[in-house]
Amino acid sequence: MFGYVRINKMDLTFREFEDYKGYYCGLCKYLKKNHGEVSRLSLNYDVTFLIVLLSAIYNPKSTVDEEICIVSPFKKKKKIINEITEYAASMNILLSYYKLEDNLIDERGIKDILAYNIYKGKLKLAYEKYPHKAELIKEQMKILNELEKEKSNNIDKVSNTFGELMGEIFSYKNDKYESDLKRIGFNIGKYIYILDSYEDLQEDYKKGRYNPFKEYINKKEELKSKVDRLISISLGILCASIDNLNLQLNRGIIENIVFSGVYLRYKNILNKGCENNVQ
Questions:
Q1: Which pLDDT score, from 0 to 100, does residue 72 have?
Q2: Do 269 and 227 contact (CB within 8 A), yes or no?
Q3: What domains appear along the chain, each with residue ranges and CATH number?
Q4: Residue range 122-127: average pLDDT?
Q5: DSSP state for residue 278 in the 8-state scheme
Q6: Residue 245: phi, psi to the nearest 5?
Q7: In 63-86, which positions are buried (b, 16+ CB within 10 angstroms) versus exposed (e)?
Q8: What's the rounded Cα separation, in Å, for the pair 91 and 130?
Q9: pLDDT tier at 262 (50, 70, 90 boundaries)?
Q10: Is the pLDDT of residue 279 over 70?
């Protein structure tokens, strides 16, 4: 369900791209060091955006260095780590664990069973650091699962539930930024859930899995128009909330993601086109 919040590489400056990859690599390294090698399998761009955004707002002291890794064994890569990296890594673990738990309710695939048992051992550290967030995520996933078991075709209700979950994750602190960050997270969550459901409709239908758009299986143009409208509304609110923050740090990267990368990502999927310049 993740991986829909991406950059448009061609519209970033070289330095902006290096910084973005630095946050991504920092998260990857932090996950490996604190949650084990397997935790890096859940690494995604949506959580990287969380780091970029919260770092821009709170401007924490960051450790910046370079090192090689298995993906780039011959060239050192920039790595940026700060207190937001630790928070995002914990949220990444919690999201992955409860999503796997939800998957096992739907279908007990061997891969999901193995991954679930591995992540179960990684949950303790993240839960102990953020028990309140963990319980909120768990509760929203429970509500979402109940809606899915009911085979709800109310896309607003199911996407709003995932939006509430993401809103809690994005609201890092109880401060003046909380309402805008909740609104940003909420609309990112809606966007992710709606686009994921749209993209997976054919496969879900073939495999008999839940999908809120099943009634549109033979109404492709009608569904395309509906999804386009719903996502356009959410992205409009998302962009307005970003503007309210009046950010300076990481501004180019954030605007690239919300005004270009996300837009291209959803339009490409909506039109079943190629990936273009989205990384």
A1: 66
A2: no
A3: 9-270 (1.10.600.10)
A4: 74
A5: B
A6: -75, -20
A7: eeeeeeeeeeeeeebbbbbbebbb
A8: 9
A9: very high
A10: no
**DSSP H or E stretch at residue 57:** helix 45-58
Burial class (CB in 10 A: 0-12, 13-18, 19+), 197: buried
pLDDT tens sequence across 157-171: 999 999 999 999 999
Report the SS3 class of residue 73: coil
Direct distance between the N- and C-terminal alpha carbons of the chain, in angstroms, rounded to an integer: 17
Of 119, 110, 98, nearest in space to 35 by CA? 119
Range with lowest mean pLDDT among 5-14, 47-56, 104-113: 104-113
Q: Name every residue whose Cβ is closer than 8 Å to that of residue 42 and which is 6 or more positions away in sequence.
A: 31, 92, 93, 95, 96, 119
CB 134 within 8 A of CB 127: yes
Q: CA 163, CA 167: separation in Å to the nearest integer?
A: 6
Owner of token pair 């395309």: 224
What residues contact residue 273 under an 8 Å CB cut-off, 6+ apart?
267
How far is 165 from 150, CA to CA, in rounded Å?
20
Report the pLDDT value the prediction gives residue 277, as an integer from 0 to 100. Answer: 38
DSSP state of 72: S
